Amino acid sequence: MAINLTKSTSIDLTKKNPGLNNLHVGLGWDASDSNGNDIDCDVSVFMLNDLNKIPNEGSFVFYNNLKSGDGSIVHQGDNRTGEGEGDDEEVIIDLAKVSENVLQMLFVVTIHEADSSGQDFSMVQNAFIRVSNNSTGEELCRYELNESFSDSDSVQIGRVYRYEGEWNFEAMGDGFSGGLETLLDMYN
């Protein structure tokens, strides 16, 4: 049974699930602005080292780089509208392949071209991130965003991180402005 998380709470993924190596991370949302225009939300994964930095170019996964350099993360592609039920964008992670210098994988959702379109996360509803065992399909945890983020065009929604030799997930829900570039500047 999946655990519903609240902001800033964590769950152990591998200690409670020995042998868990393959994760499916699904993210979803419903989004349209006041004019009924679709909002193109994009999921990115920042693989961070002990300095909280992206160690190399292959450690940043997004719609133009769908696979990490170490082969551990595979983004399943860009969904430009968020239409339909369920996951809008998906990421598959093979924990056994994650480079030793990577301590966490940060999941970020950004609004593509938010500045020019005048869009922000107050226009995004029903946003969530969920983590499942990719081998069995069992959902392990879910975090649903409840804040409005009216001045944000990006949200750090959650992270998978190492702690005492095990993998954990933390629900984050931290909003930012300035688009993907701002976050890249923070972590480069």
Give an account of the 3D structure.
By secondary structure, this protein is mainly β. The chain is 7% helix and 43% strand. The chain has 2 helices and 12 strands, in the order ββββββββαββββα. The strands form 2 sheets. Strands 1-10-9-3-7-6 form a 6-stranded mixed beta sheet, with no helix packed on it. The chain is globular, with a radius of gyration of 16 Å. The protein starts with a strand and ends with a helix. 38% of the residues are buried. The mean pLDDT is 89.
Provide a compact summary of the structure.
The protein has 188 residues and is mainly β. The protein is built from two helices and twelve strands; from the N terminus they run ββββββββαββββα. The chain has a six-stranded mixed sheet with strand order 1-10-9-3-7-6, with no helix packed on it.
